Amino acid sequence: MEIGDLLSSDGVVDRLPAASKKQVIQEISRRAAEMTGLDERTVFNVLLERERLGTTGVGEGVAIPHGKITDLDGLCGLFVRLDRAVDFDSIDDRPVDLVFLLLAQEGASADHLKALARISRLMRDPAVRDSLRAAADANALYTVLTSENRDRAA
Length: 154
Known about the structure:
alpha/beta, Mannitol-specific EII, Chain A, 6-stranded mixed beta sheet, 48% helix
């Protein structure tokens, strides 16, 4: 599975302003709803419920919020670089500035897990995180996300 299969260039947001974890979740819910035609409140509730099970702040300034939604066809990704890091209750207690949202159709467990694993591998790479933090704009972010994936697919 390629990151480009999950993420379009329209699904990359640079310098998103947010002051808290809840604001990040609200904003990514709004943007995901716009991209998919889903109800914003439904997306927000799914993500909030997942956060209640345990933080999706995976460490090193990265969060991977995710959830399953009945009315979604396939997988949908959204990548956001925040304008400043926020507390996300991360496992390493570090604030988050890189957020990769993954939404999957209810019942797509295998695809959902494969996509989460792929995103996690990508975001665990210090060189990728450094490149994302240094990227000039949303186009550069998309290029880093998709080209880094191809380089490591072999």
